[in-house]
Amino acid sequence: MLSVPERFDRGEGTVIHKGRNELRKMKYGEQEFVVKSFHRPNLINRFVYGIFRPSKAKRSYIHAGMFLEIGVGTPRPVGYINVRRGGLFDRSYYVTYVSPCPYTYEALFKQKFSYEDEVLSEVGRITGILHNHGYAHKDYGRGNILFLHTEQGVYLEVVDLNRLAVGPLDMKAGCKNLERLPATPHMHRVLAEAYAKERGLDPEACYRLMVAYRSTQPGKIDGLY
User: Fold this and answer.
1) Which of 65, 120, 151, 212 has fewest C-beta within 10 Å?
2) 109: in domain
3) Paired residues of 17 in beta bridges
């Protein structure tokens, strides 16, 4: 962990995502890991993160442990490190093992999967588990749900965990948390039924709420809610 900032600065590893934050696959010995470098915050937040609030990397690490404890998959966490410069918080890095999941939720709209309904049912079930424990992922979008099909069925992992709301979720709040996931009417039906079953709710009411909340989102794909 102590070597991560210097190795990252040297450009080691393979970039797998570069935007506001950057993800790279990096090796240590014979083992491969994913390292997420969070962007440098503005001056005010450099002070806040240094004293009053845990860094995004630390929150990711803590939230991963919370997810795994209740049986919700996420790449196995290794650790995090915060870097300070000039007495102020500068950057943070979060390290996990590489996920075995080759696809994201978004792949459902780019290729055909014979087990699509299994994926959707598992998304609904896992989301229900999270909400039953009062956890609402605040960036629950198409790129942050990963899946893998095995002989035992569909396995999911949820990523990008630094933003998590903790507290009771009623049916409306729970269904609203799914509003960033695009879906056809059939997909919404499958999601709603699995979600409602896990939480002991009315599936028809969940379906109507999911459709209504999704319809307010900008940039919807043609043919989808």
Assistant:
1) 151
2) yes
3) 23
Write the CA distances from 124 to 82, 177, 191, 199, 207, integer angstroms: 35, 11, 5, 10, 11
Q: How many residues does the chain have?
A: 225
Q: Is residue 15 part of a domain?
A: yes
Q: How far is CA 60 from the centre of its chain?
A: 10
Q: What is the maximum span of the chain, computed from C-alpha positions, in angstroms? A: 56
My answer on whether 89 and 122 are in the same domain is no
Distance CA 154, CA 105 (A): 12
The alpha helices in 78-133, defined as continuous H runs, are: 116-132
If asked whether residues 190 and 136 sit together in one domain, one would say yes
Does any domain span residue 224?
A: no
How far apart (Å, rounded) are the C-alpha atoms in residues 141 and 185? 18
Question: Which residue, chain included where needed, has tokens 């070597």?
Answer: 3
Instruction: Tell me if residue 203 falls in helix, strand or coil.
Output: helix
Decide if 29 is inside a domain.
Answer: yes
Q: Which of 81, 97, 113 is the last residue of a domain?
A: 97
| Model pLDDT for residues 165-208, shown as the tens digit of each residue | 999 999 999 999 999 999 999 999 999 999 999 999 999 999 99
pLDDT tens-digit map of 97-156: 999 999 999 999 999 999 999 999 999 999 999 999 999 999 999 999 999 999 999 999
Q: To 10 degrees, the CA torsion angle through 62, 67, 71, 77?
A: -50
Q: How many angstroms separate the Cα of 190 from the Cα of each of 17, 185, 216? A: 31, 9, 20
Q: Are 202 and 162 in contact (CB under 8 A)?
A: no
157 and 176 inside one domain:
yes
